[in-house]
User: What shape does this take?
Amino acid sequence: MSEPYLVVHVDKRPNVSFEIEQSIIEGGGGRFVATSSSSEDELVANVKDAEAILVSSAQITRRVVESMPRCKLIIRYGVGLDTLDIPAATDHGIVVAHFPDFCQPEVANQTMLLLLACAKKLRLLDTAVRDGSWRPGPLGPMGPIGGETLGLVALGNIARAVVPRAKAFGLNVIAHDPYIGEGVFRAHGVERVENLHDLLGRSDYVSMHTPLNPETRHLISEAELAAMKPTAYLINTSRGPVVDQEALIAALDGGQIAGAGLDVFEREPLEAESPLARMENVVLMPHSASYSDQSFESMRRRVGETVVGLMEGRWPQFVANPRVQPRASLPPRD
Assistant: This one.
């Protein structure tokens, strides 16, 4: 009997179960170990014998990659790849898999939740009812939502899922995305805006949907916030660093924009002493937009099946580094 292949989860957290993926992996001939680390040295020690690693949010640097001589597969739970050194993985023949179709309805729903919570001043009014003050003075300015304009920064899969939800509330939807063809805009009934600052100036709500890469880091900073209406809200369910958080705090403190709905932050978890935590015009959520019971159960099942499939010689459905093919210990892809 062959020795089980070792699969290491690198982001173990309290009260999180890995029962689904563990049962699939161990049923397919593997051994599953869940680990956590407080330093890169500790992470390197945890993964040195792994043939596959599973990653939620840990930084997998070139040094980490080079410490795994037996590794064939890195799986990133979810969509984003900004924590992984993909060129390093490719250099070492390691397949990087992820799930770009994961949680699209959930994040689209959370986008609308944050938009509505901002527009109707949910945090302020909820607090007023709870502390007995009832209505804390005039409720305005408060737009009607219907007939207002939602500006999407990027028109990828999640943003496209937002479009029908926003239109159901009567919002006009415009978008800026220099990488998407005109046909996509037409198919979804979205007006294309060529210039980002034009979109910012026209929108009552600006919603971020870009991946995080060198081009999009701090895409929204002082100049972009200054281009927004003073009555507008910024919504971010994409990646925290696409917004310059210090510039956002300054804009909110100065009344430059009306407020923000944030599921992601430059540094996570958000510090308890952050100025954002005390602002009544800011709705905060803990990077939870992707969650539903069904989406996470499906994700865990797919992770387990992807590990077993690769160990049996099958390519993952979604490979983030297709150039790895000549170096990977797998048959050629179809």
Residues 293-311 form the longest helix (19 residues). The two ends are 31 Å apart (CA to CA). DSSP finds twelve helices and twelve strands in the chain.
